[in-house]
histidine kinase
Amino acid sequence: MRVPIFTKLFISLFMTSILLVIGMTFSVSYSFKSGFQEYLNQQEKEQVEQLASLLSGYYSANVGWQELQEQPEIWGDLFVKLGVPFPKNGAAPERHIKPNIDLGGPDSGLERGPNRGPDRGPDLPPRDAAMSEEFGPISHRLFLEDDNHHWIAGVYFSDSKESSVEWFREPIKQGKQIVGWLVLKQKNQLSGPLVGQFYAQQQHNLIWIIGLAGLASLLVALGLVRHFLSPLKRLQQGANALSEGDYSFTFESSSNDEFGELANRFQYLAGSLKRQKDSREQWLVDISHELRTPIAVLRSELEAIQDGIRKPEMTRMDSMHHQVMGLRRLVDDLYLLSKTDAGVYQLDVRRLDIVALLQSVANRFEHRMAQKGLRLERLISEPIFIKGDEKTLEQLCVNLLENSLRYTDAPGTIKLSVLEQNDDLVLLFEDSAPSVDDAHLGKLFVRLYRVDQSRSRSHGGSGLGLSICHNIVMMHGGSIVAKRSELGGLVIEVRLKREMSNG
């Protein structure tokens, strides 16, 4: 089943947003539960530290905490100074009672419980009366001990053991000596009816948050996906246009991201295909023109002989043979060029002496050059070995020398040079005037390209020789360029990789 990329991106963005909202909601809830209680406990600890500083003034080195024991109202006054509520009107014991709790530590074995005999007093309120509130002020959860952990003052707690309870102890000092301890009962996490109510409210809010976030994610994801995929739809339209042969389609993209880059590449592809189409059409026109001329000459000669206007003399036969050979060369060049263009030509790569190969080809052209009034110069050193296909490299040298022979005016000079530059072998084919303008130098290797005036069709040739040379050099991993020669004509520079060991 085909799932469109629109659906994939939409589901991905939508589900990611929903999961993030749910995760953040639960994280905030947990953070509030733990962090808020920790914050409250820290505030209480700071208040206990202030109270410890005030209590140190009521300790006497001679009588200890006797003043505070004889005047319990001092304990309440201290909370008033701190601005902390203190239990009144029966909300706390009328007199302070030693609590029965175990705070651990090395002195945990000491008796900390209140007297349970008849001297306990009939006027005591019920236990935990001061803790009727689940989370009251510190005056409801604080008591004082001396340095030996004997209870002095404060509220009374029952013997219950709660896992959610923590005991904070703050030393009371005079100088460097510890004279007492303040012990505070705290909770390590929120619990109870307030927490239940909080969580119920959180669940209600969570439903609304998820619903609103889901709706917002739906709209945002829909808009983003449409925005991001609009260039792809444009590219799809362009691809359809290209497949139907419409190369004038424009890929407009104002973005500078990957989609914009892809649109630019598509635009370049469309332009390249259009240029190739124009080149192919021009190629067919040029080939048709090249074939039409010799065929027209042959037809006229044959029809003249058939009509009896001319006799089948040897000169007529030679003329027709010349036209047929021209057609054969054109067909052979087209065949070789098509194979090298398609990359299907099989090279027979061997180790060969390029100097010997060039000398052999030059010897074949020497007589023709002399007949035309051209002088051949050879600046060739000792043997130089490369790895290449002998047949195509010979075709390369033949085409370049044929080009110089055809387009060099007499009297003139053609010079062959072989140079070694680092790992490269450089072959130079130079000739004397005439030359070509600089504007034509980069186009000489384009198939069927002809330079007007001095290098026109009147000199013969199919216009494919330099294109074939370019393909041969490319197949050997080299380079070929055309430059102006100091002799007044052109110099064709062929650069190939040489074999390092020439022995």
